[in-house]
Specification:
The complex is a heterodimer of chains A (300) and B (332). Chain A is mainly α and 300 residues long. Chain A is built from 13 helices and no strands. Classes of the chains: A mainly alpha (300), B mainly alpha (332). Chain A: It is a multi-pass membrane protein.
């Protein structure tokens, strides 16, 4: 179980009415609180800013004064990264892996969760327990034999060799999130649908799927982020394969670039900051979607 | 209403069986069986084949002395089976014993330093603040970045001629300059700092979310009775935050035991072996890059059982505390 699974557990603080500070006249602590907030934010964002700003300097500047500001600003590093096939190849690979994993997790996960949540058969409970037990088997433990298994299957060194195990390892969390979601949809709806002549699959397709969209979004976002940031599996499956480094996913590509061009600090900083942008942008978008999904769940 | 909203851990049952009484006719029983197989089949095959099977294989391989990228029929070759010798070797290896120790240092340091820090900051920030949304976004940024990319950024900052040392110099604190990630005597603590930077924001957000579930009336009542801010936090808010803290602690411990990406990327292999090796980096180093899949698998199995033991012990302890709380609440 990874820490990402619980981003979704808490309700976002600002969607509730602001709390009153409990009946104490003047709030003497307020300036101190702002100071703490400022320090925490500065520490969190400082290193990221340093990397971004450093990307706009030259390596000579960086060596002369590592802590200085860009003066003059140079776009050469960014331009050369953005103009390189290698960077876009890395991005493309990451997109393929993340989209493939997300689609697989969502499709395979909702099918299994549907059965576990809404079919009555022997072994249903056992099936659920089996999937939840998967939380006890982290990828780290399985990684080496998995690599050998993929070699046997001819998937080593390919994108599928990363996507398929990623889907498998995301299934436990997915099913744990989706089953209660599907279960919460009232039986009366299903009965009404069945009286109207809809088969169970029709009910799944026309009613359950649209109603469980918020849960699917949550699951999808978790899978996407997990895949986008994943390193161990690509390291074992792709970096030791035959795929050229221009087609490695971003985390691998960035480390490779930084090793190759370790003397050119500015270029590495630019490459690193550009590699950060997709995750940051996705977070800005997905944060709202997760929040929206959870609100939808509350109202539904 | 749904599991995603409950901060408590995963549900342990599949819930009640679907309402009986809408039994379908016999012909649809066969149809139902086909539907079940078709719908669950893919998930089951993927899960058994790529999660369960590799773990079982790890246990099998750990008993063999295997060449890199071996073929399965080689398992039958004479002298390949060596029993528990790989395990013996692991526990005799100072490097691996050190790695276990490092994992636990990170684990306890996280609980004892990151935990109180996150709770303290969350308690302070749990009030109406201007720019609260922006603040929440900012402190979450390190958590969103890939561990590898965050690690790389810090590696650049912490070079001998990097930003951190230059900053110290310009503040007149030049005597504090270090070779942060290459000096074996401090590399582990540098690593811990990077991990704290990366994961503290997540902990704070989690605690803030948990604080939203603490009823305000209790604090108000206590304030009317003359309790100070600190007394209210100490005796009311923090105990009620218990479930959130326990979930965070669990995630943090499992993360500390599985630690790989950050160490692999930030610390050079030579320094790593001396100072910051973790079970996972040792496993990948030996099993993949030193070409000893049998030995690496033994490390994986040990890692699995240590994680399992920690998880079980923790659940037993945390569960007992929850029960004790329930009992005292009942008495009062």
């Amino acid at each position: 179980m990874t820490a990402t699974t619980s981003i979704t557990t808490g309700r976002p603080a600002d969607d509730l009415p602001p709390r009153r500070t409990a009946g104490r006249g003047i709030d003497w602590g307020q300036p101190f609180v702002y100071l703490v907030a400022l320090v925490v934010a500065a520490v969190a964002i400082g290193p990221v800013l340093y990397v971004f700003l450093g990307g706009f300097r030259t390596t000579a500047d960086l060596n002369a004064d590592p802590a200085g500001l860009p003066d003059p600003w140079t776009l050469a590093n960014w331009a050369s990264v953005l103009g390189s096939e290698r960077f876009w190849g890395n991005v493309l690979a990451s997109v393929i892996l993340a989209v493939g994993t997300t689609a697989g997790v969502v499709i395979v996960g909702i099918m299994a969760a549907f059965v576990i949540a809404r079919y009555d058969f022997r072994g249903r409970q056992g099936l659920y327990t089996l999937f939840t037990a998967g939380l006890m088997f982290p990828l780290t433990v399985a990684a080496l034999p998995l690599t050998l298994l993929l070699r046997t299957l001819g998937l080593h060194g390919s994108y599928l060799g990363v996507i398929i195990p990623s889907i498998a390892f995301a299934l436990p969390t997915t099913i744990i999130i989706l089953v209660p979601f599907l279960r919460a949809i009232p039986d009366e709806l299903e009965e009404a649908a069945s009286i109207d002549g809809t088969s169970r699959i029709g009910f799944f397709w026309r009613i359950l799927l649209p109603l469980s969209m918020p849960g699917l979004v949550t699951v999808g976002v978790l899978a996407f982020v997990g895949s986008w940031n994943g390193y161990l599996l690509p390291l074992l499956v792709i970096s030791t394969g035959t795929l050229p480094q221009e087609l490695w996913p971003l985390p691998l590509g960035v480390t490779q670039f930084s090793t190759q061009y370790s003397q050119d600090t500015a270029a590495v900083l630019a490459y690193t900051s550009l590699a950060m942008i997709p995750a940051l942008a996705f977070f800005l978008v997905a944060e709202r979607r997760i929040v929206g999904g959870l609100q939808g769940a509350v109202k539904g | 209403m749904t599991a995603t909203l409950q901060p408590a851990g995963p549900a342990t049952t599949a819930g009640p069986a679907p309402t009986p009484g809408r039994r379908r006719p016999r012909s649809s029983a066969a149809r139902q069986r086909i539907e079940i197989v078709l719908l669950v089949g893919p998930a089951l095959i993927l899960f058994l084949g790529f999660v369960i099977l590799p773990v079982i294989l790890a246990a099998v391989y750990s008993l063999y002395n295997l060449p890199p990228a071996f073929r399965w029929e080689q398992l039958a070759e004479p002298d390949r089976f060596i029993g528990l010798a790989n395990y013996q070797r692991a526990f005799d290896s100072p490097e691996f014993v050190r790695a276990i120790g490092n994992n636990f240092i990170i684990l306890f340091a996280s609980l004892l330093i990151q935990g109180p820090l996150a709770i303290g900051i969350a308690l302070l920030l749990n009030r109406p603040l201007r720019g609260r949304t922006a603040l929440r976004l900012l402190i979450f940024v390190p958590y969103v970045l890939a561990e590898v990319i965050a690690g790389l950024a810090w590696k650049l900052l912490l070079q001998p001629s990097g930003g951190v040392n230059a900053m110290l110099e310009s503040l007149g604190l030049g005597f504090l300059q270090q070779n942060w990630l290459a000096d074996p005597s401090i590399a582990l603590w540098t690593l811990f700092w990077i991990l704290t930077w990366k994961y503290l924001g997540f902990a704070i957000i989690l605690m803030l979310a948990g604080l939203q579930g603490v009823p305000e009336e209790l604090a108000e009542a206590a304030a009317i009775d003359g309790a100070s801010w600190w007394q209210i936090q100490r005796h009311i808010t923090i105990p009620l935050l218990g479930p959130t803290i326990r979930i965070w602690a669990f995630l943090s411990m499992i993360g500390a035991l599985q630690l790989f990406d950050m160490v692999w990327v930030t610390v050079a292999p030579t320094v790593r072996g001396m100072a910051t090796e973790t079970m996972a980096t040792y496993m990948v180093q030996q099993g993949q890059f030193a070409g000893q899949p049998g030995y690496g698998s033994a490390i994986a199995v040990i890692l699995f059982f240590i994680s399992l033991a920690v998880a079980l012990i923790y659940q037993r302890l945390a569960l007992r505390r929850d029960l004790a709380g329930a009992v005292t609440r009942g008495v009062r």
